[in-house]
Specification:
The chain has 215 residues and is of the alpha/beta class. It contains six helices and seven strands; from the N terminus they run E-H-E-E-E-H-E-H-H-E-H-E-H. It has a single domain, classed as Survival protein SurE-like phosphatase/nucleotidase (Stationary-phase Survival Protein Sure Homolog, Chain: A), CATH 3.40.1210.10.
Length: 215
């Protein structure tokens, strides 16, 4: 297996369940993962940078080996990961997520912190994947079904691990996993739960990949 150096970021903060599940899944298959996430929730911050902190010290903490939080927006946090924490050494891949809730529609390029963190990498010529999981909500209270969300995170992480393996298999002699300036925005839809009843989900994952591949 080809081992990648991966920078893992998000917009929900370093304590969010989604990024923890994604981190564990990538490490479990042998990838070298550096986690760099905002100190707190930064959903919806989009392309905003921490301009109010320009010229001032920014809190950057390694809370566990190879795992950091930055008191900044997702874009600034990702930039801190690339320039400061990794010391300018480019990772093979940046993954942003797993986000709580899907990121679809024409406005996500500027409104989604998850997608904006990923595009920070693609603008630097680094392949990137943004990944988001659909959430089930109570129609009356709009409360999230936490059990379903936990299952969605597990499925999303498994899907992304397989997607990364697919990219590696398709890389051939190309120096990078994706062409310059190209990133993938992966959204696991609400109906993924119907796959749990199948004895094998591999063929369905291949089908999902065919329309979740976004350039």
């Amino acid at each position: 297996m080809t081992v990648l150096n991966i920078l893992l970021v998000n917009d929900d903060g370093y304590q969010a369940d989604g990024i923890r599940v994604m981190f564990d899944a990538l490490v479990a298959v042998g990838h070298n993962v550096t986690l760099v996430a905002p100190k707190g929730p930064q959903s919806g911050q989009g392309t905003r940078i921490s301009i109010d902190a320009l010229g001032q010290a920014t809190e950057v903490v390694e809370f566990a080996p190879g795992q950091w939080f930055v008191d900044a927006t997702p874009v600034t946090t990702t930039q801190a990961g690339l320039d400061f924490i990794l010391g300018g050494v480019e990772p093979d891949l940046v993954i942003s997520g797993i986000n709580e809730g899907e990121n679809v529609g024409a406005s996500i390029a500027i409104s989604s912190g998850t997608v904006s963190a990923a595009t920070t990498a693609t603008r630097a010529g680094i392949p990137a994947i943004a990944v988001s999981a659909g959430t089930l909500r109570d129609p009356q209270t709009f409360a999230i079904d936490e059990e379903a969300l936990a299952d969605a995170y597990e499925f999303s992480a498994e899907f992304v691990v397989d997607l990364v393996a697919e990219l590696i298999d398709r890389q051939g002699d190309n120096p990078k996993l994706l062409p310059d300036g190209v990133g993938l925005n992966v959204n696991i839809p609400l109906w993924w739960t119907t796959l749990k009843a199948l004895p094998s989900r591999f063929w369905m994952k291949r089908a999902l990949l065919s329309f979740l591949w976004v350039t």
